Amino acid sequence: MGPPGAGKGTQAERLIETYGISQISTGDMFRAAVKEQTPLGLEAQKYMDNGQLVPDAVTVGIVKERLAKEDCKKGFILDGFPRTTSQAVSLDAILRDLHITLNGVVNIVVSDDALIERTTGRQICRTCGATYHLSFKPTKKQGVCDKCGGELYQRDDDKMETVKKRLSVYAAQTKPLIDYYKNSNLYIEINGERDMEAVFNDIVERLGKSK
Ligand code: ADP
Ligand code: ADP
Ligand code: ZN
């Protein structure tokens, strides 16, 4: 968990390599559907363009389908889901059905000023989806992905105006969800306002301690 730009995707990308597990990013799944202009993509786009959340029923549906896939048996990290208390309640039911328990709930905390800097400078590879930052994680060659040579682009919803909207949506709809987990022994709060390496090492250490 964490607000837009906290570093969820960046950390998830490294954690899946370290643990040999799958990354389930609802944002990535929606962006792929938008790119393909599937019925799901057309529906999701209406909300994403305005910085709003895609309705819970739609989001829970795609996560449920994804978690049932074979590769999730070796473990997974949910990135950007759940984002509402209702999604968390649905997730608990899905996990119960699949006989899966969570090992930890990581909340990455970053101040609004840093979040705006991070989101507005974020760059994504059109081909492989890798994430960079104009100042904090620049590519070797400007505008070109280090991993695959693909072209980089700025997400439509990373423009200043939409970022501000997303931060207010986060405060209203996602922040209350922290309380849902805070009192469980799963909850791990991470100071995300440090370099990527320090944040990563902290997450690995804290996950190691939580059973
Ligand atoms: P960020 O990583 O910057 O927080 P994401 O890629 O996770 O952004 O999400 C981008 C957009 O996709 C969100 O603004 C929202 O419209 C939609 N989205 C992603 N995950 C969810 C979710 N769990 N519930 C509802 N909408 C979601
Ligand atoms: P989220 O998935 O939470 O929206 P990302 O992982 O996409 O966030 O990170 C947002 C932007 O900030 C990206 O451009 C990323 O390269 C950059 N970033 C991520 N973590 C850090 C960090 N610890 N310090 C500086 N920049 C970071
Ligand atoms: Zn790439």
TrEMBL record:
Protein name (record): Adenylate kinase
Metabolic or biological pathway, per its Swiss-Prot or TrEMBL entry: Purine metabolism; AMP biosynthesis via salvage pathway; AMP from ADP: step 1/1
Primary enzyme class: transferase
Molecular-function annotations in GO: AMP kinase activity; ATP binding; zinc ion binding
Signal peptide as annotated in the record: none
Species in which this protein is naturally found: Megasphaera hutchinsoni
Assigned protein family: Belongs to the adenylate kinase family.
Its biological purpose: Catalyzes the reversible transfer of the terminal phosphate group between ATP and AMP. Plays an important role in cellular energy homeostasis and in adenine nucleotide metabolism.
Gene3D superfamilies: P-loop containing nucleotide triphosphate hydrolases (3.40.50.300)
InterPro entries, alphabetized: Adenyl_kin_sub, Adenylat/UMP-CMP_kin, Adenylat_kinase_CS, Adenylate_kinase_lid-dom, P-loop_NTPase
EC number per UniProt: 2.7.4.3
A single GO BP: AMP salvage
Residue ranges constituting the Adenylate kinase active site lid domain according to the UniProt record: 122-157
Name of the encoding gene: adk
Keywords: ATP-binding, Cytoplasm, Kinase, Metal-binding, Nucleotide biosynthesis, Nucleotide-binding, Transferase, Zinc
